[in-house]
Amino acid sequence: MSRKLIDSGNNAAALAARLAGIDVVAAYPITPQTPLTEKLSDWVASGELDAEYVAVESEHSALGVCIGAAAAGARAFTATSANGLLYMSEQLHWAAGARLPLVMCVVNRGVGAPWSVWNDHQDAMSQRDTGWIQLFCRDHQEIVDTVIKAFRLAEAVHIPVMVNYDGYYLSHTYMPFELPEESEARAFVGPYRYEHALDPDHPENLNSVTLPDPRNDSEGNLRGGYMDIRHNLQQELHRSLDVLEEIDAEFNRTFGRGGAPILDAYRTEDAVVVLVAMGSLAHQLRVVTDRLREEGVAVGVMAVQVYRPFPARQLVEALAGRGQVLVFEKGLSYGHQGALFTDLKSVLYAQPERPKIGGFIVGLGGRVIETETLYQQVREALDEGDDVASRWVGVQL
Amino acid sequence: MADKRFRILTSAATAGPGDAGRTGSWRVERPVIAYEKCTPARTGKHACHLCWFYCPDVAVSRELKPSFNLEYCKGCGICAEMCPVGAITMVAEEEFAGEEAS
Questions:
Q1: pLDDT tens for each residue of A93-128
Q2: Is the peptide bond before A101 cis (omega within 30 degrees of 0)?
Q3: For the whole model, what pTM was predicted?
Q4: In angstroms, rounded to a whole number, what is the distance separating the alpha carbons of residues A313 and A41?
Q5: I want to staple A347 with a disulfide (CB 3.0 to 4.6 A). Which of A46, A308, A312, B91 is the partner?
Q6: CATH level 2 (architecture), domain A263-392
Q7: In terms of Cα–Cα distance, which of A31, A21, A44 is closest to A167?
Q8: Residue ranges per domain, chain A?
Q9: Residues near A237 by Cβ (< 8 Å), separated by ≥ 6?
Q10: ipTM of this predicted complex?
Q11: Topology of the domain comprising B22-94
Q12: How many CB pairs under 8 A join A and B?
């Protein structure tokens, strides 16, 4: 029997990680950390969670410990935010290249300087090229479900998964959600399987130096060079979308939730205009959609639930042939445009009839995004009826 | 244990000399061992062998008189650091100039 709770997004994530049967948690406890890892440390201390909690001296070490734990055959978990994620950056690339099935929650926040503890997506956007799978949640229920599914996904494709949720909007607010029974969650996730874990009876050097070309290892087996190994990661990242759909379908059969793990559509069937966003902002855009629908505008929302690997085929299927696509996002490639916006344009480029497309940068560093403002921006874009190049919304000075 | 799929998943190798190529050419200092201090050499018993254990290039032999494979020894000096009796000294390669190249 699942139970209904009202709790914070951080506690939802902690509960889900606990249900998944983590063996090792490594975390740096100071800002920009959240109560998520504090909760886990409480449970380890009280004996409610049978895991090793390693308090480290930095986020770089936190991920380093998880890398070592996963390679040794343990299910490892960590969490961070903003500059903490960036301090991990070198280890993020390593974890993906080493193909270790870690799961990490990133509570999305603005990146300093100037210092900010408030929400935007710049932390995750800046790490999009590390080779991790990046999933985004819109509410507390999605945090619970995504964390549980993330372990299955990571272990199926040997790629680490970053579960993103909005700082404060989700992390510190309270919302009702259903929590699966521990035995059901454990049965769904299954025991940790990493067939390449270190084995003292058969010692190996993992991630030893590669040469530009494949070469024989000391046992005479031809092993990939750097480029072959990296190409395999790229192929598996693309395949992971299909794997995620399979896992989500099984989750849906087991727990009765899910069904749209890659793109989640709201009132888009006949929509001429589609609003695109990630995270809680996609839920906020539903309010704008409902209002515009009442005014007779055929508009809908497409929530992007997976940012990396970029769901190109799914987005083309969902958006090609629409009249207008408006992307609202909380992160950008500085000196260019919104990251999701430019990625989306790149996949629509090859379409014979592409929609007019607009990009809007909103809510950086927690700048409040009024639903009324979103409505006005959509209205203006509809009136203009043309492409909009990455427009900053809500700048006051 | 490396199955075919894993050979391209990431790099891995059983520890062996030459894992990282012929690293002997990197060396600017060479380990020189004083057997009169070395525990296994002095006692005639297989003990200690920390130089063998810690060598990242598997370039130290596990013998009563440990020796160094200079084709792979990159001169990192870990063996000298680990030796509890100070039997290993790192000596600049230029001291060996003129000797037959290893």
A1: 999 999 999 999 999 999 999 999 999 999 999 999
A2: no
A3: 0.91
A4: 41
A5: A312
A6: 3-Layer(aba) Sandwich (3.40)
A7: A31
A8: 3-189, 263-392
A9: A131, A133, A157, A159, A308, A309
A10: 0.70
A11: Alpha-Beta Plaits (3.30.70)
A12: 77
